[in-house]
Amino acid sequence: MIKLSLVVPCYNESAALPAFMEELMRVLNQLEDVRPEILFINDGSSDNTLDILRQLATEHPDTVRYISLSRNFGKEGAMFAGFEHATGDYVAVMDADLQDPPSMLPQMLRAVREEGYDCAGTRRVSRDGEPPIRSFFAHCFYRMMNRISNTHLVDGARDYKLLSRKALNALLSMPEYNRFSKGLYEWIGFRTKWLEFKNVERVAGETKWSFWKLFKYSIEGFVAFTTAPLALSSLFGMMLMFIAVAVIVAQIARQLIFQDSVSGWTSMVCIILLLGGLQLFCIGIYGQYMAKMYMEVKRRPIYIIAETSEERRAALSEKTLPNEPVRNDGREA
Ligand code: UDP
Ligand code: MG
Question: What's the 203 CA to ligand 2 centre distance in angstroms?
Answer without folding.
Answer: 9
